[in-house]
Design a protein that fits this description.
Strand order of the largest sheet: 4-3-5-11-6
Largest sheet: 5 strands, mixed
Radius of gyration: 23 Å
Shape: elongated
Mean pLDDT: 91
Number of strands: 11
Distance between the termini: 57 Å
Structural class: alpha/beta
Order of helices and strands: HHHEEHEHHEHEEEHEHEHEHEH
Length: 291
Amino acid sequence: MTRSYIPLNSLRAFEAAARHLSFTQAAIELNVTHSAISQQVKSLEQHLNCQLFVRVSRGLMLTTEGENLLPVLNESFDRIAGMLDRFASHRAQEKLKVGVVGTFATGCLFPLLDDFHRHYPHIDLQLSTHNNRVDPAAEGLDYTIRYGGGAWHGTDAIFLCHAPLAPLCSPEIAAHLHSPADMLKFTLLRSYRRDEWTAWMQAAGELPPSPTHRVMVFDSSVTMLEAAQAGAGIAMAPVGMFSHLLNSERIVQPFTTQIDLGSYWLTRLQSRTETPAMGDFARWLVGKMRK
């Protein structure tokens, strides 16, 4: 039986173009011409007898076949690179790529990293932060730490910790807050989830803010708390992730009422084969959270 071998350059060109959704950016990364990337992708499509990209107004979009191929190539290239690194460094080092929502990273994970490196010096942990909207397949992530209800399509999720929300503000603003209703005199800061302040006000026994109330929307709780410290308004944020600010009294929690709209989860695509490094990281992190 004769096998048709696909050139590695075609697979590499597709993987880079799919990550960037751009032939131009892929060409820059691989130090070749735009035309070379286009030809390699076209050659791969001919080998596979399917279309991998469609052109849209803003550039490229993956077809279903392209979306299925990308995570397989990401994992394969990562494993090849990991093995080559072992030969180059003469030590059995494993690479682990984890995407973590920024709030959990600063409020919980970063202070624990020294402990992880002490226990697992052979694991090259590569972290990237996101704003809870992330594409693990396109980014080639082994694990993703997210906030939500624990249900994502095609994904296994391990519970890490609860993340109750409450208003947080500067001491100067807190001095003017005698009841929850007083907060409506100030700008309300929130994430992209529209229901946070309505849910909290209802839990506190107050009327929700009007649709025309002054609101600032953030894609990161970390930047939201920077705004709150500066006196820009009152933030709705996960209290446990900002204990360092509360302990320093740079931020105040004016009312004890909290609401639970989600938790933090360690997630893995079901199509992602678990490696020894992934297993070590998951057991270590879950153990830390349960303590």
